[in-house]
Amino acid sequence: MDQSADVKSIEKWIEELDQFNQTPGNGTTRPVYSKEDMEARGYIRDLMLSAGLTVNEDNMGNLFGSLPGTDQSLAPVWTGSHIDSVPNGGKYDGAAGVFAGIEALRMIRESGLPHKRNISVNVYSGEEMSRFGVCCIGSRALTGRLKPNDLKSHKEPAGKSLYQVLKDAGYRPDAFESEFPHKAPVYASLELHIEQNDVLEKAGCSVGVVTGICAPTNLIVDVYGVQSHAGGTGMTARRDAFMAAAEISLLLERLALESDSVYITGTVGEMSLEPNAANVIPGHVTFSIDIRSVALEDKDDLLEKLFAGMQEITERRKVCVEHTMMNHDKPVICDEHIAEIIRKSAADLGIPAMDIVSGPYHDSLILGDITKVGMIFVPSKDGLSHNKAEWTDTGDIAKGTDVLAKALFQLANEA
Ligand SMILES: [Zn+2]
User: Fold this and answer.
1) With 0-12 CB in 10 A as exposed, 13-18 as middle and 19+ as buried, what is 109?
2) Which CATH number fits domain 215-328: 3.90.180.10, 1.10.3720.10, 3.30.1330.10, 3.30.70.360?
3) Distance, CA 193 to ligand 1 centroid (Å)?
């Protein structure tokens, strides 16, 4: 293939998509199924159509832009990513992979070279967990991890269920079980994404070949103590829910630091205190725990120690603790055959590449349930992401796109 990615188009698309944004001038805010997200889908749909792709949308809002191959009896190759964002996030997270996919398919189409398998660039709905507390809504639904009942139980903090929000957005969530394409096989999935860390930047590599994707385990922890007067209750008489929560948080940090896992993280990102008043000892604290690793057994090991520690802390502090496991996802080891195709494509194009592990989760983690997956990373400046300062050189996205196109083309010609 002689075609190479057009940096100017990618740059323009990224800027244009960013007009669908609740917080212009203060990062990108595009919650899944919001007005801005729906408008952004319309924009992507038009772009897919003008790239000569056949466009389909399912009842979770997943978009599929397909380039037909010569043998319709073969399972398709997928690429793509997401377009929703966290509050005040960046404009490259997700979008880079969607545009890289559209551009790669344009290159393959314009090369005029035949490929056997259909290649589809997909937009997966709601990769970020910020609206409904569950990540990768679209890909979970595609793989059968999200059941119809879950649509009613997952709610946004304001109270609307995922089911209701889907209906309000014009989808038919009741139809989703019967129509889902997860029932049809997928040959391989290859997603391009920004790195969201600074490993590539530090190494001076434009392309990362992802070998494994860490998976999140998310818990909500409730600590119940006794609400009482900050002045009236002596230090030894307290049953302080916050101090217990703080001690559990520090234990989480220590366990993650002391773990001998190749890569493991522990985060407390949300906490609410009741009654949340300066002169009252909190009687109830709710907080989140997020644990990620490339090895499930390392997460299990950390969790076991955390639960044992929690028990000790709560008994000593005479408080009660309850936890709800929101998800306990299995990490994915990327397919070595796909990784090798990515390495070779980069080498052929003279693009410096290196193997890398993904700390953040991606739709590919979930798609690993139904197909073999690969990922291509492109550098994030200073490793920043989920931040308005998130920035990736479009030249690097274009290099990643060249590698993506070459690798997709090869996969689509495999028997
Ligand atoms: Zn992302």
Assistant:
1) middle
2) 3.30.70.360
3) 7
For ligand 1, an ion, list residues with CB under 5 A. 93-94
With DSSP H G I counted as helix, E B as strand and the rest as coil, what are the percentages for the chain, rounded to 5? 40, 20, 40
User: In a 10 Å sphere around its CB, with 0-12 CB exposed, 13-18 middle and 19+ buried, how is residue 2 labelled?
Assistant: exposed
Query: What's the number of CA atoms in the CB half-sphere (13 Å) around residue 99?
Result: 30
Q: Give yes or no for a cis peptide into 24 (omega within 30° of 0).
A: no
In the chain, residues under CATH classification 3.40.630.10 are 7-214+331-412
What's the gap in Å between 182 CA and the centre of ligand 1? 21
- Residue 284 CA, ligand 1 centroid: distance in Å: 33
List, for residues 120-165, the tens digit of each pLDDT value: 999 999 999 889 988 899 999 999 888 888 899 899 887 899 999 9
Mean pLDDT over 27-50 rounds to 97
pLDDT confidence of 257, banded at 50, 70, 90?
very high
CA 126 / ligand 1 centre spacing (Å):
10
What kind of architecture, by CATH, is found in domain 7-214+331-412?
3-Layer(aba) Sandwich (3.40)
The whole-model pTM stands at 0.86
Cα 43 to ligand 1 centre (Å): 19
In angstroms, what is the span from residue 28 Cα to ligand 1's centroid?
Answer: 13
pLDDT at 182 over 80: no
- Domain(s) of CATH 3.30.70.360: residues in the chain: 215-328
pLDDT in tens, 65-99: 999 999 999 999 999 999 999 999 999 999 999 99
Q: How far is the CA of 306 from the centre of ligand 1 (A)?
A: 28
